[in-house]
Every structure is written in structure tokens, then in C-alpha cells.
Specification:
Order of helices and strands: HH
Distance between the termini: 19 Å
Number of strands: 0
Structural class: mainly alpha
Helix content: over 70%
Shape: rod-shaped
Strand content: under 5%
């Protein structure tokens, strides 16, 4: 495989992993709100959004 394509493929995979992790973190925050769990989960929402946006940027075709 060409070196450039291999690097791009690795970045896409990392992006998908970041989007998945961000989605799970946002999901935990949503469940915490809906089920009235004790604790402050706002920082998790911010981290989840940042991971999702960064991951989507990596997966975008240029």
C-alpha cells in the first residue's frame, strides 16, 4: 500500500474511534440526566463533544 494512503487510512480509523468514544461519553451524560444519577457530568459532555468534532474532522475526505 502506498505510504500516503496508509497514513490516511490510519487517521480515518483513529477518527472513527474518537467519534465512537465521544458518542459513548455523550450517551453516559444523557443517561445521567434522564435517570437522575448523582454527580456532575457536564465536563463529560464537553469532552464528548470535543472528541466527536475532532474525530469527524479526521474522517472527512479532502
Amino acid at each position: 500500500m502506498h505510504k500516503h494512503l496508509k497514513e490516511r487510512s490510519g487517521k480515518k480509523t483513529a477518527g472513527y474511534v474518537m467519534v465512537g468514544a465521544g458518542f459513548l461519553i455523550i450517551l453516559v451524560n444523557a443517561f445521567a440526566y434522564l435517570l437522575d444519577w448523582n454527580g456532575e457530568y457536564t465536563p463529560l459532555l464537553i469532552i464528548g463533544l470535543a472528541l466527536s468534532v475532532t474525530g469527524l474532522t479526521l474522517t472527512r475526505n479532502k
